[in-house]
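Hi R.,

Here's the chain you asked about this morning:
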Amino acid sequence: MIDFNKKQNEWAEDNSSDPYVSPEMQIKMWRDNDPKSYKACIEKVDNPENKAGGLNKPNGEYTGQMARTDALRKDLTINKTRPQRPTDFTHLKKLIMESDGVFNHAKAGHIQTATRKDGTISVWDHWHTSLFAYLAGIDYLRIDNYNHEDNDLEKARMLEQEFFYSKNGLAKKVSEHEEHEKNVERQRRLIREKKAPSFNIDVAIDDIMTKTGLSATGRLVNNKKLNGILSFKNTYKKIRSYYKGQNPDKIFINSIKQITKVWPNDEIKAYFLEGYCDLKQRIDEHLPNKVTETDWQEFLDSLAKFGEKQTSFTTVDKDSGKAKNEKGKATESISLRLLYHFNNWWKRPESPHKQVLVNQAKALKMYNNDLTDLYIKATIKGARKSIEVECPNCQHDFKHTIEE
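And the predicted structure, written out as tokens:
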């Protein structure tokens, strides 16, 4: 894979006395180093809308500032005063593909520029949009321009940095949940217009959230809030892969409803859901047909009965301030800790089962590809102590508290 950041920084170092790049130079770098992506995008922008100047092109009544697209420049100085990061060509391709190659002036808005004393029109925000326009053959763009009064180049750069920070750094970041909702509507439109495959993972999990009364952002006040959209998405992917051909959507929905039934007033913690589904999948794989869905529901009911919540498994220990999960293995750790509780429920006094469902030997077999033997043994026994654990990646020892 081409490291475009490195290439641009190397160019900047070689051209430190004149570090301005034009749209033409950047597109040429893209074409020469990633011809496949370049070709896909150049074909995409070859459409009637762009040949007519793009959608919503400013008409004769527009009185604002405009600039020739090919006259715009990006300052790639190697100094810390660089106004913008190197171009991300993956992002540029995404911008083009998600717009179906059609440049829309209304969506693009104004390119943020500053004209320096040497006449250079420096773009300090929306450079990727400028490159899209150049590739699409759009001759002129609307700009929001500032005229520098100082000849000092470094001062100009620092001022443009401040502009960028004021506009973007102080803005509220779009959360992963908000981004999910926006992407779903985008994908639904593309599917309706037959511009995307009929199945999309984000649309699929949004449909599941609708069926189970969940909301990623809390925007739907009558729906239960979901905390952790990426974990939720990851869980769904794993369920689709493991239960292929067995109606994975129904299986996932059932697990969600089991949790919402037990904790009706709590938001859904996606990390708990992922750990719970992981445990169910491991039991199904190693002990098929041993545990029914009724068993799983009654087990969760017992957790709530004894005061356990989803957060009992997803938050740090309130006394030690340390995570109860093995480092970097939250899903597998939650799964194993749930198994400890499940074992206790399985052999409860009123149960017909006199032994735990999963003994230590079976637990080691079920989890040894993901967790250390020491953690598995201590957790399945319910040990409550600090242990030394060796990281399998760096071989450093660290203290770890085993709970439950």
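The radius of gyration is 28 Å.

Let me know if you need anything else.
M.
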